[in-house]
Structures are given as C-alpha cells and as structure tokens.
C-alpha cells in the first residue's frame, strides 16, 4: 500500500488551525486560555514541517479527526464542506459532465444553474477557500526572519523553512485562484495584515490576477526543482502549471489574453521530465501515487485522511444500479452521480460495447430454392445451402461456397428430389432432372436462378472494402478474407472519417451499400458512413437471404468509462440514478486488483495538475495565437489519443486540431477531474449560450441562463458581515 509522506505529520500537531472558524472569519488566532500559543508550538523544531502538513491537509480533510468531528469550520457539514468535494461540486455539477440525484438541500440547483447567495454549498466552498488562505497567512507570519531570529532558528532548518514558505505561498495562490475563478472580486488579506477584528477590503478580479501572477513568479526560484520534492508537495512545475492555467483564462479574469505566457509556462512543464502514464485507467486507482504524469496531487489515505469528501465522495457517489461496490474497492455505493448525453456524445464509442453497426437478420421467410451437391453431401434438406426469392417472383439469388474444384450440384424446388434441375447442355439453361452442374474452380459464388425462364448464372467473387475512409480511398480495394467456417468475409483495419462500400472483384459491376442505414445491403446502395477514426473490424454476411454487415470498433476511446447496463442515456428524472450513464473512472482498487486500505475511505489521490492537461493547454494557447508550434501541439494531442486508443487509430492531423476539438478533448481526457466549468466559461459556453445539456436551466432539454451565472455570488453571510463587499452582478 502507498505511503502518505507529509500527511503523516498532520496528526502530530494541533495549532491555531484546529480551532473552528466561523463563516466570515478570514484570519483567526487562539483566544482560549487553554490553547497553545504559536511560540509554544514552535519550540519544537519539527513543528514548522508539521504545520506545513496542516496546510496541505486542508485540501484533503475537513477537521481534526476523520471523517467528522472537531471541524475546521463550525456550522458546515464536513462532507460537502471538504475542499476537493466543494471544488468538484462547483466545477462538475454545474456543467454537462455531472448530475446528482440527491435531495440534499439545494444541490440540484447547481445543475439547473439556479443558485443564489444563500446557497449552503456555495457558502461552504467559499468558507473553505478562505479558511485555507487564513492558514497560509498565519504560517507565513510565524516564519518571518524576525520570528525565526527570535527563536534562534539557524542552519539547515532555516534553509528548509525557506522552501516551506514558498510552498505555503503556492498553496495560498492556488486558493486565491479558486476564489478568483469562482467568485471574481473577493476579500483580500495577506500575512502583512494584522490579525484581529477588521473588515477585509475587496480586491478586483483583475488585481487579484496580478497578485497571483506576482506571487507565483516570486516563489519560482524558492521552490525545489520539478519532481525533486516529496510526493504531494509543490515544486517549480506545480507553480508553472498554475501560472499556465491563470494565463489561459486571463481573458476571462482581466479582459486581456495572455496566451503567449501560457505557452511559455506549458513549455517549462513539458520540458521538466514528466511523462504520460502508460495506462489511463490506472491514474484513478488506489495506488495512483506512482504515476509519472502527476505534477501536483492531493493525497488521500483510507487510514490517515478519512473524510466524507475528496475522492471518498468521488468514488462512492457514482456507484449504484448494476455496479458492484466490490469492483470499486468499497463497501457500498451512494447511487447519486451520473453524466449527461452531451458528454457521452463526445466519445465515438461507449462502455464495453464496441459494435457500431450490428448485423440485421432481415426476413427469414422468403421462398427458397435448395442447392444440394457434392460440397454438402447431396442433401436437399439443408437450409444452409439455399437461394431465396426476395420478391417472390420465381427469381432466386444467393451466395454459396464451393471449397473444391470440380464441385457438382443441382437445384431442387423443395427439401427433396421430387423436382430438381440440372444443365444437360452446360449452356446456362436448366433442364428438369438434367445433368449435374459443375464448377471447375472452387470459391465463393454468386448464383442467380430464374425459374420463369429456366436460366441461371454463376459468378465467382472475391470481396473488398473501398471508400474515402479506407487507406486506398476510392481508388483501391482493401481485400476481405473469407472464413469458411463462419461463412463471412471480414477485414480489420484503420479507418478515418468518411464513407465505405463493399464491392466484388475490384469492379463496380457488383457493389453493396446501405440505402436505409438499417444494416441491410442493396446492390448499388448508398455509401456507408464512418463518422469517427479508429481501428475497425468490418464483416460482410452474404449467407442469408437479406445480406447484411457489421462494423465493430476494435480500438475505441478507452476513456469512455461509462456504465450503460440498467442505465438510460436520457435523463427524464434527475432524481433517478438509472437515468443517465454512470461513470466507472475512479476506484479504490490498486493496479494489482487489491482493495484499498479501507473499504469506506479511499486511497485514491486527486490529480490537481497532470501532464495531459498541460499538453491540452499548450495546444489551445497555440491555437489562440500564443505562438509555440502547431506541429508540436498536434504531437502532444496525439500522444494523449494514442494512449486512449492503444495506438494511432485515433490520431488527428493539423486540420482537425481546432479550438472546438480541444474543448471536446478536454472533456474526454479530464472527465470528472474538476476542470469543466472553467473550460466552458473560457469558451463562452457555460451560461447565456446556445450550448445546452439536459436539465441546464431546470428544463429537460436544456435552456440558456443569464450570464451572471458565470460567477458564483458572494455568500449572503459574508455580505452581511463585511460592509466593504459588493455583490456580483445579478445576485
């Protein structure tokens, strides 16, 4: 089982941070005579590292004993008041990526985009953000040069505290970014403000952007090099990634694009030695702390960081219906969270089902003409060797396979020899009771018989696939292989979006398409559509009266971890777990199949930043005019898609790399990782837009909502407590 490094220290210390804070406090100090003072705590040299652990722990736990009791913030449920759960609620439940069926207070208003300043969940996340900021501020106050001089701190410990302070500033910048992104203009306090009863001033969103930018640049040289810190702690690459995120969204925050800066800091991260994880699915398992892709993650341990939020929530909440909790390493699912059809539609295939077109058995009751012969034991009763009259007009057609040269056969009008036909003159004219018909060369033959004129034709065929989707385009057939046991023609190959048809003998004289898109083939029929790139198995069935085919996507997007059994695609009732596809992405199971350390509280870490996200940010910033290299952007995106498709079948070219594609690719790659709302706002598709999903705006088919919902309101409790605050527009 994995180790939790710095979080192990968290349980060794109760500082000022252990005292419950009220909703409206930005900074607190102990006022209880029984509480230890900071100077007493820091008599222990280890306390500097232990308190730092509390700062990191503020992202993972919600109080001083897990999973609840002794909360950090009084008056807030410790489950939905936990930092990652609050972030997830705001980033996912408000978008097309997630719905929740519970009736917990106002939670459904998130998906409806119908919240207000009294919303308890908004209040909880806002309070958690500023509680975290207050902890960082206090740590920085207690680690100034003057404080350290007064305590006689020197040598290696003094050096280490310099790194600790940079990490505390990073964590504060991270929370201020979340505040800026979600709430806009917010109260602002740093370590330079005195602790006491005062009303913090409100900072504009643009000015907070400048502050976060300046802080991250200021600490860049004080953080350890990329991948040189303990797991779960920030390094230079974490700061660079946060800078890239801030710059990518600069147009939203300040009105001025900073895409070139985004490219610059993405390149720093890309060149820092991180690599994509070989397995997409393993990044969301209980031992994902070993991933080479994670830049900054929030560590969870089922024994040491017990909480009703974090990844415990993310793993439990989507499990319900036909899903077995044991498969997810937990003792039971909570049956709440699913995704919408808008997200499912962004994947070329869903779940474990890779059949794109299933064969259509067609009509099985046509009049039959039997074909006994040496190839099947001269048995006139075998229904596997027959021709059919689709128009019931005395004209019969079908395909038969003769494995040997010099095969002989006859036609009978029923499963007996009572009425049979041969060809005495070998002239293509049938004679009642005539001589056996012989084919000199074995093979797969198309046979047409007209009993009205007593004529027949034999055409030996080999079949191929042709079309704009195939490697040969419309100029060259891709040969199908015949399986005599199955009686089918098939091929497996990479296809691109386009069209296909089947044709015989490299000639258009005999070709099949699909006029009704019903998997039934017609001679000369319409082109068959291949909407998505991938590796496909195409099978042609000519052994039945109605000819059909199947298309199976053998290499499909493996990020489509949807559970469809027992689930409907459409959400008619948001409260019903069976409405909407479930998502099986997060698990409390290791890569070797072992359950996590605890059946309730999970070991799975939450990747706040990872390399694939940086690749996609780079590509987007390049397309938005930030410089960089388009060819490199294509390569980075294709690295991600090669992993998703287990090969190059899903790769794209430069012409396909558009901003819309990047937005959809972010949804596919980063599903349920807490990015979606920010992405949709940046693209202008969150509120007041034609981009709809089910139950947006509280309407089943979705409805546009006012642009004010691009920001959350300052909670009413804080507005009432601080006269310096002005509410966001529309609330």
Characterise this structure.
- This protein has 18 helices and 29 strands.
- The protein has 731 residues and is of the alpha+beta class.
- Among the domains are: 368-461, Immunoglobulin-like (Sandwich), CATH 2.60.40; 462-555, Immunoglobulin-like.
- Strands 17, 18, 21, 22, 23 and 24 form a 6-stranded antiparallel β-sheet that branches.
- It starts with 37 loop residues before the first helix and ends in a 10-residue tail after the last helix.
Structural descriptors:
single chain; alpha+beta; Immunoglobulin-like; 6-stranded antiparallel β-sheet; 5-stranded antiparallel β-sheet; 29 strands; elongated; disordered N terminus
Distance N to C terminus: 48 Å
With helices defined by DSSP (H or I, 4 residues minimum), what is the helix count? 18
What is the subunit organization of this protein? Answer: single chain
Q: Under the CATH scheme, which architecture of the domain at 368-461 would be assigned? A: Sandwich
Whole-number mean pLDDT: 92
Rg value? 33 Å
- Inertia-based shape: elongated
Give the class-level CATH name of the domain at 368-461: Mainly Beta
Largest sheet: 6 strands, antiparallel
Helical amount among residues, as a percent range?
25-40%
Indicate the structural class: alpha+beta
Uncertain residue segments: 1-34
The CATH topology assignment of the domain at 368-461 is: Immunoglobulin-like
């Amino acid at each position: 089982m994995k180790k939790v490094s710095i979080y192990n220290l968290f349980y060794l210390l109760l500082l000022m941070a252990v005292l419950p804070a009220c909703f409206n406090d930005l900074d607190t100090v102990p006022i209880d005579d029984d509480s230890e003072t900071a100077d007493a705590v820091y008599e222990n040299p280890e306390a500097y590292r232990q308190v730092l652990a509390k700062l990191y722990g503020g992202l993972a736990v919600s109080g001083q004993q897990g999973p609840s009791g002794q909360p950090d913030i009084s008056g807030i449920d410790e489950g939905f008041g936990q930092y990652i759960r609050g972030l997830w609620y705001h980033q996912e439940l408000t978008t097309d990526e997630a719905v929740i069926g519970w009736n917990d207070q106002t939670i459904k208003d998130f998906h409806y985009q119908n919240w207000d300043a009294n919303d308890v969940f908004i209040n909880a996340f806002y309070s958690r953000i500023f509680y975290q900021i207050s902890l960082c501020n206090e740590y920085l106050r207690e680690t100034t040069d003057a404080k350290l001089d007064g305590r006689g701190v020197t040598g290696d410990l003094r050096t280490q505290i310099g790194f600790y302070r940079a990490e505390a500033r990073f964590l504060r910048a991270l929370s201020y970014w979340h505040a800026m992104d979600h709430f806009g203009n917010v109260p602002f306090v740093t370590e330079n403000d005195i602790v006491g009863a005062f009303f913090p001033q409100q900072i504009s969103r643009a000015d907070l952007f400048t502050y976060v930018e300046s802080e991250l640049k200021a600490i860049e040289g004080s953080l350890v090099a990329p991948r040189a810190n303990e797991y779960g702690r920030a390094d230079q690459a974490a700061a660079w990634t946060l800078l890239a995120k801030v710059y990518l969204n600069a147009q939203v925050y300040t009105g001025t694009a900073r895409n070139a800066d985004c490219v610059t800091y993405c390149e720093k991260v890309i060149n820092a030695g991180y690599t994509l994880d070989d397995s997409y699915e393993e990044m969301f398992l209980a031992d994902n702390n070993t991933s080479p892709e994670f830049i900054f993650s929030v560590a969870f341990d089922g024994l040491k960081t017990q909480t009703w939020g974090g990844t415990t929530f993310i793993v439990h909440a989507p499990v319900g219906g036909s899903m077995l909790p044991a498969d997810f390493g937990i003792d039971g699912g909570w049956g709440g969270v699913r995704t919408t059809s808008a997200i499912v539609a962004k994947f070329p295939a869903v779940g474990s089902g890779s059949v794109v077109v299933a064969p259509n058995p067609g009509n099985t009751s046509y009049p039959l003409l039997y074909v006994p012969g040496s190839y099947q034991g001269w048995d006139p009763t075998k229904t596997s060797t027959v021709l059919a009259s689709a128009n019931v007009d005395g004209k019969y057609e079908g395909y038969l396979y003769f494995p040997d040269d010099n095969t002989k056969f006859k036609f009978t009008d029923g499963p007996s020899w009572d009425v049979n036909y041969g060809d005495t003159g070998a002239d293509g004219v049938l004679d009642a009771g005539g001589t056996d018909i012989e084919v000199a060369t074995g093979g797969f033959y198309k046979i047409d018989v007209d009993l009205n004129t007593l004529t027949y034709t034999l055409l030996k065929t080999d079949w191929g696939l042709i079309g704009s989707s195939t490697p040969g385009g419309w100029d060259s057939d891709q040969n199908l292989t015949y399986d005599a046991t199955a009686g089918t023609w098939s091929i497996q190959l990479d296809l691109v979006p386009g069209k296909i048809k089947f044709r015989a003998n490299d000639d258009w004289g005999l070709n099949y398409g699909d006029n009704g898109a019903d998997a039934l083939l017609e001679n000369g029929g319409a082109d068959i559509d291949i909407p998505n790139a991938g590796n496909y198995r195409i099978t042609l069935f000519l052994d039945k009266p109605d000819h059909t085919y199947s298309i199976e996507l053998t290499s499909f997007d493996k990020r489509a971890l949807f559970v469809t059994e027992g689930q409907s695609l459409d959400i008619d009732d948001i409260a019903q777990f069976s409405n909407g596809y479930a998502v099986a992405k997060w698990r409390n199971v290791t890569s070797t199949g072992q359950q996590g350390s605890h059946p309730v509280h999970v070991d799975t870490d939450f990747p706040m930043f990872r390399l694939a996200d940086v690749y996609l940010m780079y590509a987007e910033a390049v397309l938005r005019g930030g410089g960089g290299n388009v060819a490199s952007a294509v390569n980075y995106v294709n690295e991600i898609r090669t992993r998703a498709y287990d090969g190059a079948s899903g790769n794209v070219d430069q012409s396909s790399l558009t901003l819309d594609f990047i937005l959809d690719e972010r949804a596919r790659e980063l599903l349920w990782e807490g990015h979606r709302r920010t992405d949709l706002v940046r693209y202008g598709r969150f509120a007041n837009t034609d981009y709809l999903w089910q139950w947006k705006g509280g309407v089943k088919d979705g409805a546009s909502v006012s642009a004010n919902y691009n920001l959350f309101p300052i909670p009413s409790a804080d507005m009432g407590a601080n006269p310096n605050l002005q509410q966001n527009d529309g609330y």
